[in-house]
Amino acid sequence: MLEKMEILHVEKVIEEFETMTKDTENVQRETLKKILEENGSAEYLQNLGLNGRTDPQSFKACVPVVTHQVLDPYIQRIVDGASSPILTGKPITTISLSSGTTQGRPKFVPFNDELMETTLQIFRTSYAFRNREFPVKNGKALQFIYSSKQSRTKGGLFAGTATTNVFRNSQFKKAMKAMQSQCCSPDEVIFGPDFRQSLYCHLLCGLIFREEIQLVSSTFAHSIVHAFRTLEQVWEELCVDIREGILTSRITFPSVRSAMAKLLKPNPELADLIRRKISGLSNWYGLIPELFPNVKYIYGIMTGSMEHYLKKLRHYAGDVPLISADYGSSEGWIGANINPNVPTESTTYAVLPNIGYFEFIPLKENVEEQVHDRGDANILSMEPKPVSLTEVKIGEEYEVIVTSFAGLYRYRLGDVVKVMGFHNSTPELKFICRRNLMLTVNIDKNTEKDLQQAVEEAAKLIAEEKQEVIDFSSHVDMWTDPGHYVIFWEISGEVSDEVLKECCNCLDRSFVDAGYVSSRKVNAIGPLELRILRRGTFQKVLDHYLGLGAAVSQFKTPRCVGPTNYKVLQILCDNVVKTYFSTAF
Q: What is the distance between the alpha carbons of residues 412 and 116, in angstroms, rounded to a whole number?
């Protein structure tokens, strides 16, 4: 389809989406049938006794709800080169690595052509709705995308991060062309072996093509903020390169140098213009529209753990709209953002009923009530029965279960979502949090969302001093008696001890979970500890993950560092410069 298409027919894509979502129940039934027909010969399904049945009732009766732990041995055999159909009918040739920031180590997840096609369908759908509100002309996109190396597994399969597998797929570039969203940087920059050198060149390409840039994007908001924080440091060097037409010696890889040499010509007028534009800014406010005057919007995942970066991103963006990208994971996609003009914090995702078969575990009590022992098979029978895509109720929270075209069956994604409404008959979901990211010492249960809200509240105190929390994480310290919460902050500059003590107390008071408050009052949980980190500590955490083979595009700062993630914990603890204990209780 994409080979013949020059430019995506936006109205046709929207029309197809509208038709499909008016018949969600039937589309879901047909999608499950297709998944089970294509993969009926797979050992995993054969062993469960489906015997060729493809209806939802038989599927749910025979196939158990599972975590990654259960499928891991099957995936491992595929990784090791087993040639028989194990999870899918057709052989898996590529493996995706999850970011690894949740558990401290990446997971292996199957990746195939069908998953690539669902990726492009999500991209096309959200682009169609976005382009109706914010039309882009046939310009270029400043995309901060980075591809880590694809390696080979023991069994000879290609392995890379999910974003790497997408960017390296031949269909990706064709799709971007059809969506008039081609990256302004050459492939050598995207696939460069060193992300710092690639980032510098992305910025340089953006400035060279500044008039043509229609949108700025990356996988996550974190990467966009990181890019413009870097520009604050290197803009003068970028101006020298543009003025002289010669690339800085900091770029050492021959393939990247030679690709950039084709774009770089001496341009003193442009260098002077950029210098004037930047010199006229007040504290970098509105940097993006000042440098890229034709930018229509800024695009990337901005919900969940990315919400922390929105304040800084809005500062750089000025009045340019921020639009959150779609909802998915290394395991596959779920929904598209079809309401691009709502405030980023209110973003919802309409589920595409033909890209997988979806079920939802109702979380009637608090999300957190069912967290413990989630790996224990017995707990599943005690949980409410999963409901189908069309049975979810507005205002309720659920854990997502996915059955994909890439060999995952009734797979617990670990995400908690809230149903905010319906688009025709498909639900619109708001991402709430990861279910297993928890701070808990006693009877307290605080989610990633609770942590984020506490940090936002306390950060207001340093904002009065014109400083900001660059990034943050947390840890439950059970070595002390009683155990207590530790919050790590990296801040932008000097803040007085007085203010930081008050920040520590504010953090402690901002966890309003009843179990936490009552435990603190009787000292069953010790005083919260705020640890201030050296500047650049979270860069070291990022470097650690890059060293494990993660891609910058997929990096998410770990918000809660558990005992198994001891390397990251060590980086954080080794870079503490000040410590404060709460006196709030």
A: 21
Residue with tokens 């021959």: 254
In this prediction, residues 329-348 reach a mean pLDDT of 88
Which is nearest to 211 in space by CA: 276, 273, 300?
273
| Confidence band for 149, pLDDT divided at 50, 70 and 90 | low
Reduced to 3 states (helix: H, G, I; strand: E, B; else coil), residue 493 is coil
508-513: Cβ within 8 A, 24+ apart = 508/582, 508/584, 508/585, 509/584, 510/453, 510/454, 510/457, 510/458, 511/439, 511/444, 511/446, 511/450, 511/454, 511/485, 512/450, 513/368, 513/444, 513/445, 513/446, 513/450
Contact status, residue 202 vs residue 227, Cβ threshold 8 Å:
yes
Place of tokens 């990337």: 300
The span from the CA of 416 to the CA of 422, in Å, is 17
CA–CA separation, 307 vs 285, rounded Å?
A: 19
Question: What is the rounded CA–CA span in Å between residue 64 and residue 285?
Answer: 52
Tokens of 183: 């990256």
Per-residue HEC secondary structure of 260-317 comes to HHCCCCCCHHHHHHHHHHHHCCCCCCCHHHHHCCCCCEEEEECCHHHHHHHHHHHHHH
Residue with tokens 């307290």: 444
Residue 156 pLDDT exceeds 80: no
For residue 64 the two structure tokens come to 């158990």
- Of 433, 421, 396, 398, the C-alpha closest to 339 is 421
Average pLDDT of span 30-46: 89
Question: What pLDDT band is residue 374 in, cutting at 50, 70 and 90?
Answer: very low
Which residue, chain included where needed, has tokens 């006794």?
A: 49
Nearest to 531 by CA among 508, 506, 557, 504: 504
How distant is the alpha carbon of residue 483 from its chain centre? 31
Distance of CA 344 to the CA centre of its chain: 15
Q: Is 388 helix (H, G, I), strand (E, B) or coil?
A: strand
Place of tokens 């440098």: 291
Assess whether pLDDT exceeds 60 at residue 295. Answer: yes
Lowest pLDDT segment from 137-146, 150-159, 420-429 = 150-159
pLDDT band at 379 (very low <50, low <70, confident <90, very high): very low
pLDDT attached to residue 165: 66
Rounded to an integer, what distance in angstroms lies between the CA atom of residue 81 and that of residue 75? 10
How far apart are alpha carbons 320 and 323 in whole angstroms? 10
Model confidence at 179, pLDDT cuts 50, 70, 90, reads low
> Where is average pLDDT lowest: 119-123, 164-168, 413-417, 477-481?
164-168
- The pLDDT, as a whole number, for residue 367 is 41
pTM: 0.76
The DSSP code sequence of 181-213 is --BSS-HHHHT-S-HHHHHHHHHHHHHHTTTTE
Average pLDDT of the chain, as a whole number: 85
Using DSSP, state whether 387 is helix, strand or coil: strand
Helices (H), 443-522: 448-463, 497-510, 514-521
Residue 381, classified by CB atoms within 10 Å of its CB into exposed (0-12), middle (13-18) or buried (19+), is exposed
CA atoms in the 13 A half-sphere facing the CB of 325: 21
Write the DSSP assignment of 54-107 as a string of letters. Answer: -SHHHHHHHSPPB-HHHHHHHHHHHHTT--S-SSSSSPP-EEEE---TTTSSPP
